Give the backbone structure.
Amino acid sequence: MTDGSSKRLRQPKSPMSPQSPFRRRRSRTERIIEAFLALAALVGVVTTVGIIVVLVVETVQFFSRVSPVEYLTGTEWSALIQPNKWGVIPLVVSTLMIATIALAIGIPLGLLAAIYLAEYASTRTRTAVKPLLELIAGIPTIVLGFFAINFLAPNILKPLVPGVGTFSALAAGIVVGILVTPLIASLSEDAMRAVPRSLREGAFAMGATKFEVVRRVVLPAALSGIMASVILAMSRAVGETMAVVLAAGTAPILTFDPRESVQTMTAFIVQISLGDTPADSIQFKALFAVGATLFLITLGLNLLSNWFVARFRNVYE
Amino acid sequence: MTAATARPTGAPTPIPGLPATARFEPNLMRRKLNGTIFYGLCLAAVGLTMLTLVILLVDVVSRGAPMLRPEFLTGVPSRFPERAGILPAIVGSLEMGLLVAAFTFPTGVAAAVFLEEYARDSWWNRALRTNIANLAGVPSIIYGIFGLALFVRALGLGFTLLAGALTMSLLILPVVIIASMEAIRAVPDSQREAAYALGATRWQVASGAVLPTAAPGILTGIILAMARAIGEAAPLILVGAVVFVTYLPSPIEGGYTVLPIQIFQWASRPQEGFQMISASAIIVLLAVLFVLNAVALVLRARLARHIAW
């Protein structure tokens, strides 16, 4: 996602580069074409600015009716049932609880799979296994939600975990974990493969076993890249919508019990937009406020992940 | 920096006769056993992930196959699950995929050509790239909120397929740009230099030398992006993919639905019958995505054969 694009721009090497004395004046057509291309590259900026403007404008309107202190510190959320309560903490806690469960599954599975692919698997095995991992990454998340309520909850969780219902944070966390495993696996594998061979050979020469090389040389050296992948996975888990809407339910209560049905930030946004709430109602403004909160959380996580990637690059490039 | 990150993190086992800080474990058998156990864990992780994929596919297919009859593919949604069909959703998804490709292909490739072939290393162009990378990390539902405000309300498109496709295009565009940039970056400079040596202008180099070579890579990226657009549902809920559509969607007027939204609506109902046809619709959706992925794989294989510099 972030790799490549934040790489240093390639210095133009061609004889037609702007620095070259051989460069002729470009014709009018050439300049028009360049302007069009630049315009296309601007669409991204317009989108970013647009998203921020929309979220800020509507959120400000929400906060003209609800105090920001109540929103940020309140522990009760009741948007559709009177009296309305606008404390966002239950939504944030359920979102983070599901993301934590997802990472508890995605980190060990994804990391071990990455180590297998980067360090142990033969080229043939890797070319067979990688597309299958990508296949999991390509499954629409709605399908995972369906899997959670129709297979995971009734067939696996109910017999194993007493007190778990059809909708639970646990089931949602597990399917989101399935979702982020390939992401962690593929980004961590890239990080491990970027560790110079000489480091491994040095350790082998000192008499280290393969496992010792992996644990004490490769993993510490790739740590920044691995951290970046984990944080990116966290951001994906926080913003995940369809799987969570189906699997976790729509009960906006503050609980730390993963067996309960909960409502995430994304699930609230879906709930409001599915109902027939008028566009100027306080409920609809709340949708934008929750959207802004979600945007800020994922933006923070993405920036943190970029920072780790940049750190990793400094070491080996 | 390297020394600090590469420092061993494992806690040392204290050994009699050696200083407490020694990290040497003299028992080679145990060291090798640890390695074998760890290798087993790695295999188990890969195996468990693959097993999950198999269970998911088997479960969905066994649930959905009985209802997957020709009438299901050609029928329209109904209050009775046994009479319901998904033709409007299939048509909606195909129209959505084509519209998104039509919007993102020219814009995405043009932006990638600009960033790779034209942009100098200025802070503004670096910011453009960072911005695109960050956009790829914005949750899809946020695009839905933006699409609702911009396309549905401000531009007055209403809850139409066109508004949905434009919203989806903004979501997909960063993916297309990044994939196209990678494909363009893989074109060796010798191609460009040869074209410049023949007196080609900058645009002639980009359009005549770089893009044809990068085309398979770009196409692969666009097909995978289309697959994502067809499987994505969250932003469309906000821009009004309608609950109950018994007619074929038109891009500019009236309601529409797409496969993942139809699956969501049926899967949200408690009745067993709707869960079953929801699984049938999932089979159709996965089949469409499978075809798109297969095409992308073939293109990628052709690309690998093509590049033999």
User: Anything to note?
Assistant: Chain B touches chain A through 109 residues (CB under 8 Å).
